[in-house]
């Protein structure tokens, strides 16, 4: 039926337990398998490319060689190979680039700002950026626009500047300065415990 249809029906599939659960008007129905599947079994006739191991890191998608998955060193070789095979067989489940991340339908969940209407909206002044940072920011925004994660909004009442933050690996991460909108939104009744 495919992943989208299973999600629409609210179906939960557990290959490990060999069962499928889904809601019905009379309660939750469970379908049991007559045999448990072998971990890493390939059902299609087309075999995926074998994973490449790079010192604890495993490449499971040969189109994205820089994206690796770390596997624990305490696992036995047999378990490691079974896990690598399982990951390679299900490589389509992972989001390898921005366009792979499908959105949640508005009928399932929506997001809106709970801003206090009595507070005046704040439009932050445009901040200049160094040429290299500006090019990086433009590329990141372009990726998100192509993946339908961003869209142009005209006549904004609240505008927040993008900010580049250096990560531990010396690369940049794009963030947004939401200080003004955070001030306009009421605080959560259930704050997080002190996470420092």
Summarize the structure.
This protein is an alpha+beta fold.
Keywords:
21% helix, 8 strands, three-stranded antiparallel β-sheet, 17% strand, extended, 196 residues, single chain, 3 domains, HIV Type 1 Reverse Transcriptase, Chain A, domain 1, alpha+beta
Topology:
Elements: H1 3-9, E1 12-14, E2 19-24, E3 27-32, E4 52-54, E5 57-59, E6 69-70, H2 77-89, H3 131-146, E7 162-166, E8 172-176, H4 179-184
Antiparallel strand pairs: 1-2, 2-3, 4-5, 5-6, 7-8
Work out the count of structural domains: 3
Task: Look at the structure and give the CATH class of the largest domain.
Answer: Alpha Beta
Mean of residue pLDDT values? 77
List SSEs in N-to-C order: HEEEEEEHHEEH
The CATH homologous superfamily of the largest domain is called HIV Type 1 Reverse Transcriptase, subunit A, domain 1
Helix/strand-derived category reads alpha+beta
Shape: extended
Structure description:
By secondary structure, the chain is α+β, with helices and mostly antiparallel strands. The chain has 3 domains: 3-32, no CATH class; 52-96, no CATH class; 113-196, Roll (HIV Type 1 Reverse Transcriptase, Chain A, domain 1). It contains 4 helices and 8 strands. It has helices spanning 3-9, 77-89, 131-146, 179-184; strands at residues 12-14, 19-24, 27-32, 52-54, 57-59, 69-70, 162-166, 172-176. The strands form 3 sheets. The chain has a 3-stranded antiparallel sheet. Strand 1 and strand 2 (19-24) form a beta hairpin. The longest helix has 16 residues, at 131-146.
